[in-house]
């Protein structure tokens, strides 16, 4: 690794709430973090980072607490997919609209997924990974 690469790194403002096992996604020049766990419990809270101002701010919380979720952006919306509530694996999906600042529900997954990975290709969300059975975990789910 070149020293030039290392010299260009710097620290940004820290999250407002300590969390792990959260989702993070970029949308319209900002970073969004949602869910996760902290303080021994699952979280529904979400935060937005504006790199130009180097500031985090809380945005509306999701309806459900969820850690180990997938977070992707598509069509100016953020999708929180699956996860773990602290007692159940989730098949629900929530959709955040930054323009209105509101979360709503999307169509649920056909199986519960936690600790999965998701990405967007040509306008479709693909989810693969951990599920309630290893057979299901190997299958790609198109949302």
Folded structure, characterized:
The chain is mostly beta strands and 143 residues long. The chain has a domain at 13-110: Neuraminidase (6 Propeller), CATH 2.120.10. The protein has 2 helices and 13 strands; from the N terminus they run αββββββββββββαβ. The protein has helices at 3-7, 134-137, and strands spanning 23-27, 30-34, 37-38, 41-42, 46-50, 55-59, 70-74, 77-81, 93-97, 102-106, 113-121, 124-131, 141-142. The strands form 4 sheets. A 4-stranded antiparallel β-sheet has the order 1-2-5-6, with no helix packed on it. The protein is globular, with a radius of gyration of 16 Å. The model is unreliable at 1-5 (pLDDT under 50). Keywords: Kelch repeat.
Question: Can you summarize this structure?
Answer:
The protein is mostly beta strands and 143 residues long. The chain contains two helices and 13 strands. It has helices at 3-7, 134-137, and strands at 23-27, 30-34, 37-38, 41-42, 46-50, 55-59, 70-74, 77-81, 93-97, 102-106, 113-121, 124-131, 141-142.
